[in-house]
Amino acid sequence: MKQIFKDLYEGVLGSLDTTDKGFSARKLTGFAVCFTVIAAHVKWLTLGDLSNLENVLLIDYGFIAALFGMTTYSTIKANGTKP
User: How far apart are CA 80 and CA 42, in angstroms?
Assistant: First the structure.
């Protein structure tokens, strides 16, 4: 168990470096953003005010579209193909 925590600690700190050590910065950023969005949704739902449901769904769908766009762009850039 101690080794797992040590590996996680080194992986997260290694992600902040410019070397190949550690986890992917894109994955860590995605995790942090998704965690923040989930926390905001939980807070919003606990308030019980659903009057802004359309705005929340629009922001969610825009966020999902942006993530798909980033993935598509990085794939196109890596493969060198033009759309």
Answer: 41
